[in-house]
Design brief:
It contains ten helices and two strands, in the order αααααβααααβα. The chain is mainly α. Strands 1-2 form a two-stranded parallel ribbon. Helix 2 packs across helix 5, helix 4 packs across helix 5 and helix 5 runs parallel beside helix 8. The longest helix has 25 residues. The protein is globular and about 50 Å long. GO terms for molecular function: ATP binding; D-glucose binding; glucokinase activity. This is Glucokinase.
Length: about 160
Amino acid sequence: MEFYQFLNKIYGIVSWESVLSTSGLFNVYRFMRDIKRQRQPEWLTAEIESGNFTQAIINGAREKKDRICTMTIDTFMNFLAREANSLVLKLKATGGLILTGELPTLMEEFLNRDQFYKNFIVSDKMEAVLKDIPIYLVKDKKSILNGAALYAAFSEN
């Protein structure tokens, strides 16, 4: 709720785009820094100023360089798992969950950790269903372009 209120003050309308995107990762980070009062280390300040925020946060969490990096990635991955859970159940996607894009690819090792899966299968009544859902990660950086080309090639219009 605290994070929602934080985003609501910034955007007015809060959507998953303001959470589960590159800018969303930065929003989670700012929340940790500004609301949860986690210290921003000097090395991270320099990385942010040079435009390498996403990679810096991921590397910082990977190397356990600073608590703010770990907390940011853990929180982001929790939100990703919970929204993936919600979408799978809403869409009855029993064939699997497909994650694609830059962030999931960069965060592959965090996706492979038990915590992501544990957060994904949390459900009051549907845990048994969620446990049977395979999770796939598309690593092809051109998958969006290929999908658009395929659609254009076979589109009726």
